[in-house]
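Backbone description:
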Amino acid sequence: MEFNVKTLEGKDAGKVSLSDAIFGLEPREDILARVIRWQLAKKQQGTHKAKGRAEIWRTGGKMYKQKGTGRARHHSARAPQFRGGGKAHGPVVRSHEHDLPKKVRALGLRLALSAKLKSDDVIIIDNLVATEAKTKALASTFATLGLTNALFIGGAELDGNFKLAAANIPNIDVLPIQGINVYDIVRRGKLVLSKAAVEALEERFK
């Protein structure tokens, strides 16, 4: 399919051909949900930790004699039912990662791109280049394009001025094509691709 290309100033810059195998799929929420869950699980630190009874620095001696007190039979004060005791079945340091087939991950990315195009939330810019690293100037450029919440995907190498200028603008993310992912595409309103990014995607899913 043919798609209009614009400049950062909002002027026409020709057309580009988009592959139906990448941008023309029927969106599937179940696949997108699986890929996002896999991404976030991989990102989760898993450094939560509570001390068990074996890790508590407290005497392990018997609290009082077994019989004759009329009270319950207790041993160590490190048991979970006592204040200052260990946590029963508490969280431990672990990885939250789980496997997801490569084909499902690739399909998820294509479905995310297709969903954005279907909802008219894709903009293709000829080149993501800023003449100077000025946040104010770039923010006004984005305002003319109506971009307040967007993900920018550039080529393999990002323009330094553009990256620096966009860094302080709220709700704007800039990634090279190697960093494109389903979660960032879905969480932002608009998806802005450079022509180099489109070519790289066509090559990747050839």
Observations:
- The chain has a mean pLDDT of 93.
- Residues 2-29+98-204 form a domain with the Ribosomal Protein L4; Chain: A; fold (CATH 3.40.1370.10).
